[in-house]
Design goal:
By secondary structure, the chain is of the alpha/beta class. The protein folds into three domains: about 30-110, Immunoglobulins (Immunoglobulin-like, Sandwich); about 120-185; about 195-380, TIM Barrel. Helix content is about 25%, strand content about 30%. The chain is built from nine helices and 24 strands. The strands form six sheets. Strands 16, 17, 18, 21, 22, 23 and 24 form a seven-stranded mixed sheet that branches. Strands 8-9-12-11-10 form a five-stranded antiparallel sheet, with no helix packed on it. A four-stranded antiparallel sheet has the order 4-3-6-7, with no helix packed on it. It is rod-shaped, with a radius of gyration of 39 Å. The N and C termini lie far apart (about 120 Å). Residues about 5-25 have low confidence and may be disordered.
């Protein structure tokens, strides 16, 4: 009988101890961790257990993390919640996590971070900078120095195109595996081409230019043929395409064709790539249709900045041409309000009534003892670039 009572008491004690151990195990803080490749760190965090008093146990616990045989960084969390540990990229690291407090515990974590993202090659040329990295990159949009757009021509490669202005910047790049790196880039400035609003006054020359091309004038063509009058037409490609026979006859009559873009936008409102396409596509189309690629361009509305000039260079032009005088149904006006003088570049438009406007302009030219001359790059040689264009289109 006594033996049976003893056995029962022992069994109850064992059960009680087991329940207490189970309760303690449930109440013990848990450990979670997260790997951060971007910063090459691991965050180890204590979380409360689920048993009675688990929050109180967590509040009295402290966390310590070390790097095993090689201690990379030891952090103790003041509130017992978390510790952030730096670990090397590209290798396995063992972290020993120790919990001190009412329910002490120890655990070993093995973490592996991706290799560090590094620059393999850095090439700088006239077109910009091309950088090859050690890992495949995420295509994150970037803009540098206002206008430089970063592109990704290959999985491990990024490129920054040359822009109108020189650019030095720190570029943060992101690998697909989470690693990050900062690349210092120095982007050279694109060459720009000058704009001229005056040309050579030699021989009392003036220069007649006519813009757009929507309304070809048979009268102008007749005047050119009868008097061998040199005229430069700055053509919008979309307009020229509608009357190609006329423009071929214009070239045969001694006319010169310049580039006035594809669709006549304000180029200062476009990106470098968009402005380049406006110049370059129009230049190639006019050359294909009329036998010679233009080398002179005129910005629509006279709107010019460094981006427009750099885009013209990229589009294959040699010089940009403004104007110093205009002629229309109201007469001839110069940029300074004085009479027309040698070296002036006169702007007209292909509009109804152009023949009469040209006839009146020629009368003014003769009265001033001036001589119309072809506008070519040679006409602009030795002339200082100007920006005195009148408002217009």
């Amino acid at each position: 009988m006594v033996l049976a009572v003893v056995l029962v008491l022992v069994g109850l004690a064992v059960a009680w101890l087991g329940q207490r151990a189970d309760a303690a195990a449930v109440a013990a803080p848990g450990v979670t961790w997260a790997v951060h490749p971007a910063s090459n760190t691991v965050t180890v965090r204590l979380v409360p257990g689920s048993g009675p008093g688990s929050r109180q146990i967590l509040a009295r616990s402290r966390l310590s993390v070390s790097g095993g045989r090689i201690v990379f960084l030891r952090r103790r969390s003041a509130d017992g919640a978390a510790a952030r540990v730096a670990v090397p990229a590209g290798q396995r690291t063992q972290l020993v996590v120790q919990v001190r407090g009412p329910l002490p515990a120890s655990r070993t974590l093995t973490v592996t971070l991706p290799p560090a993202l590094r620059v393999i090659t850095y090439r700088r040329g006239r077109r910009g900078v091309v950088v090859t990295m050690s890992g495949a990159l995420r295509h994150v949009p970037h803009r540098l120095c206002g206008t430089d757009v970063v592109s990704f021509p290959a999985p491990h490669r990024l490129a920054v195109a040359s822009s109108p202005q020189r650019c030095r910047a720190r570029l943060r790049v992101y690998a697909r595996d989470g690693e990050q790196a900062v690349v210092r880039v120095a982007v050279p400035a694109l060459p720009t081409i000058p704009l001229y609003s005056f040309a050579s006054p030699a021989g009392h020359a003036v220069y007649i230019t006519v813009d757009d091309g929507w309304t070809p004038s048979p009268q102008v063509l007749a005047i050119m043929r009868s008097s061998r009058l040199p005229v430069t037409a700055f053509l919008i490609a979309q307009a020229a395409r509608q009357n190609l026979p006329y423009w071929r006859a214009f070239v045969l009559a001694g006319g010169t064709v310049g580039d006035h873009t594809v669709s006549h936008p304000d180029l200062t409102r476009l990106s470098l790539g968009q402005a380049t396409a406006q110049w370059g596509q129009a230049r190639l189309a006019l050359g294909r249709w009329l036998g010679r690629d233009p080398v002179l361009g005129r910005p629509p509305y006279g709107a010019v900045d460094l981006t427009v000039q750099a885009a013209a260079y990229r589009g294959g032009l040699k010089m940009l041409v403004g104007w110093s005088a205009t002629a229309d149904s109201d007469g001839v006006r110069t940029w300074d309000g004085r009479p027309l003088t040698a070296g002036e570049i006169v702007l007209l438009h292909w509009v109804p009534g152009l023949g009469q406007q040209l006839t009146r302009l020629l009368a003014v030219i003769r009265a001033r003892h001036l001589h119309p001359m072809p506008l070519t790059p040679a006409s602009l040689a030795g002339i200082a670039p100007q920006r005195h264009s009148l408002s217009g289109d």
